[in-house]
Specification:
Layout (H helix, E strand, L loop, with lengths): L2 H30 L7 H7 L17 H35 L7 H32 L3 E2 L4 E2 L2 H14 L3 H11 L1 H8 L3 H24 L2 H4 L4 H16 L6 H23 L2
Antiparallel strand pairs: 1-2
Helix pairs in contact: 1-3, 1-4, 3-4, 3-10, 4-8, 5-11, 6-8
């Protein structure tokens, strides 16, 4: 085996090891429910039907410490959910850098690329934290279980997420996520800052593709493991199965139907 091939394998092993460690650590943090009153396993076990969460008394006080805790919960959960589906882009970035003038820094630049990707999801996590705070303050969300109280409001979120599946923005962002080679050809930048910038750009496209699906966690329970794993697997399928052109519209139609059903159920229950 030549020296170049050995270096390539070493870089790939370092990056894959880093990705694996990040996913395992984030997954453990999420399942354990670090800082929460209950673990994700306990919350999953106690979860009720959509729009009818269990009542467990008042929620936590939203002070600065709790705000940071909820942000970290969202961000670490996004890291656990989104990093596996980003692995093909990261490995392609490794191969690209290995063949260029920055090949001596391939492993470092690749990990910086992944860091930029995850920083983009930090932005979503901040928005999700603000949304959770607002819904709890207005009584739309059950604080302890972190689930929407109203079946009608849950139906609206499902309907909006389903409609977004048919949007041109979803299609455009998904196209970039499904074709990392084309994305890197258009957005590759040199240097450490360039690596983070490229990773952040990829994260923004991924965010544009998946944010509405992530909002469904408010419907099923923010720390409901069935919803966490199910959404993560579906997002990976969207990215890694570009030939399954039926998947996105079929999911959109299904979400819209379920959303309309929940809204109708809520309306008729009040009449």
């Amino acid at each position: 085996m030549g020296a170049v091939e050995r270096l390539m394998r070493q870089d790939t092993a370092i990056v894959l090891g880093g990705v694996g460690l990040i996913v395992l650590t984030a997954g453990w943090y999420t399942v354990a429910g670090i800082g929460m009153n209950m673990s994700a396993v306990e919350m999953t076990r106690m979860a009720g039907p959509i729009g009818a969460p269990m009542q467990m008394g008042g929620g936590a006080v939203w002070n600065a410490g709790y705000l940071v805790l909820i942000f970290l919960m969202w961000w670490v959960m996004m890291i656990a959910m989104m990093t596996p589906s980003a692995a093909p882009a990261v490995l392609l970035y490794v191969a690209l850098k290995r063949m260029g003038p920055e090949k001596s820094r391939t492993a470092l630049l690749s990990l910086l690329f992944l860091s930029g990707y995850l920083i983009a999801w930090a932005g979503f996590s901040a928005a999700a934290t603000a949304a959770q705070w607002g819904m709890e303050a207005t009584g739309l969300s059950d604080g302890p279980m972190m689930t929407i109280r109203s079946a009608g409001f849950a139906g609206l979120i499902l309907l909006a997420a389903g409609a977004y599946q048919f949007s041109t923005l979803k299609t455009a962002c998904l196209r970039h996520c499904q074709s990392p080679a084309r994305f890197l050809a258009q957005h590759n930048h040199p240097g450490a800052w360039g690596a983070m910038r490229t990773g952040a750009a990829h994260g923004v496209y991924c965010l544009g593709c998946c944010w509405a699906l992530m909002a469904l966690l408010f419907v099923g329970g923010v720390m409901n493991l069935y919803w966490i794993v199910g959404i993560a697997l579906y997002v990976a399928a969207e990215k890694l199965m570009p030939r399954a052109i039926w998947l996105v519209p079929a999911t959109g139609a299904g979400l819209c139907i379920l959303g309309v059903w929940l809204i109708a159920q809520a309306v008729f229950s009040t009449t």
